[in-house]
Amino acid sequence: MSASGAAATVPARRPRRASRATFTSVLGELLLTAGVLVLLFVAWQMWIGDIIIAAQNNEEGAAVSEQLAQEPAPEPPPLVEADDGTTYYEPPIPAAPADAQWFAQMHVPRFGTDYNVGIYGGTSRARTLDNLGIGVYTNSKMPGEVGNFSLAGHRTTWGKPFNQLDKLKLNDAIVVETPDGWYTYRFRTLEYVKPSQVDVLLDVPQAPQLTTGERYITLTACSPLYSLDERIVAYGVFENFQPRAEGAPDSLSPVAPATPSAEGAS
């Protein structure tokens, strides 16, 4: 047959059989999707959520401080003369808060000028630390009271109010604001202990037989970061009380902010 006699015959293509998903492939895809979701949740919980929650806590704290400033100032407490002839205000002792009840605001200039976190009764994760802010230990002394005003907070997750405890420097101000005024403590030292060492909460931390007449503050959190193995503990001593009628104290003046902690706790 000549080349012009007929068109070449092209074999018909057989239709491809549609690939069928196997149980293994479906399971693999589901596990991959689940893994991505878990990673996204972890990223939210550890970083993105922390940033948002911390900002919300500070904004709420600023609103509380503004409301306290607009209310009529309580009558200042009596002035007391010290041995050297100087005078100071005898600090009023607030009543202990009930579980999850708002108590005060904490300011730490080293943590930033916007740091303003609520303090609430109790140290339960479910009722206080995870949802509200900083917690007051049961049986803690109160601000300005002789003994140990002891607090707990997260170093990671839920706004991590105590994330930068390890960045405190000697004499840094730790200021507790109540409706009466401001209680200023000065940071002294930092240490790491085992969770079983609850004697850090004693009236004189770790010294059950000692009586000093001092007023202490103790801030505790888990350590290292993302772990429950130890506790990081920051101690401070009381400096003075400034009544609300006299305005905010100089101890709230800005200082160089701390850098984010590379070590830590939950």
From TrEMBL:
<feature type="region of interest" description="Disordered">
    <location>
        <begin position="63"/>
        <end position="86"/>
    </location>
</feature>
<keyword id="KW-0378">Hydrolase</keyword>
<dbReference type="GO" id="GO:0016787">
    <property type="term" value="F:hydrolase activity"/>
</dbReference>
<dbReference type="InterPro" id="IPR023365">
    <property type="entry name" value="Sortase_dom-sf"/>
</dbReference>
<dbReference type="InterPro" id="IPR005754">
    <property type="entry name" value="Sortase"/>
</dbReference>
<dbReference type="Pfam" id="PF04203">
    <property type="entry name" value="Sortase"/>
</dbReference>
<feature type="transmembrane region" description="Helical">
    <location>
        <begin position="21"/>
        <end position="47"/>
    </location>
</feature>
<dbReference type="InterPro" id="IPR053465">
    <property type="entry name" value="Sortase_Class_E"/>
</dbReference>
<dbReference type="InterPro" id="IPR042003">
    <property type="entry name" value="Sortase_E"/>
</dbReference>
<protein>
    <submittedName>
        <fullName>Sortase A</fullName>
        <ecNumber>3.4.22.70</ecNumber>
    </submittedName>
</protein>
<keyword id="KW-0812">Transmembrane</keyword>
<feature type="region of interest" description="Disordered">
    <location>
        <begin position="246"/>
        <end position="266"/>
    </location>
</feature>
<keyword id="KW-1133">Transmembrane helix</keyword>
<keyword id="KW-0472">Membrane</keyword>
